[in-house]
Amino acid sequence: MIPCWTLEDSRCRPLAEIILSIARSRKAYGARPGDVRYFIDRPLLDHPETHQRDGIKYSTSHHMHTRASVGVHKGFLHLEHAVPVSVIWNAVCDMSDEGKGADEVVELLARVCRVAIMTRVEHASFSKVGLKDRMPPNWDIWSPTVDPWARYTIMGLELVSPKFRPFQ
Prior knowledge:
The protein has one domain (12-160). The chain contains seven helices and four strands; from the N terminus they run αααββααβααβ. It has helices spanning 12-24, 26-29, 34-45, 85-97, 102-112, 120-128, 150-155; strands at 64-66, 77-81, 115-119, 159-160.
């Protein structure tokens, strides 16, 4: 089981409701993208069986990763969202303004919410080309066939699929 957002995960809908409530109150309380990061990360980073917080954060068995990140101490690694949280936040705010519900937020997050493990040096390259907190031009979050990995393709970062091993 590769962790991700899905309607089948009993945690996802309540988390989406929290994210929507933060988006709805953003003007009154000054909410920002960082305010929802914790809730976005739970289905991705918590241990799939025990739900231990960040239990698989740097697990190459569960997340896409670059070849350079394999075997590197986690102090030199960076966990990067395929689609920056600020981009997701803007989309959720639009959904909130349109009166969309939690199930629709879960569906959006199921399409675009992924993470990849890379070295800190590889991560710094996103800033150099202006893709640290944005997606490439003409990239459309609302497209049903959207490629959440578009930034990695542009950067020439080859991602290795996780080799999930069931927990023992």
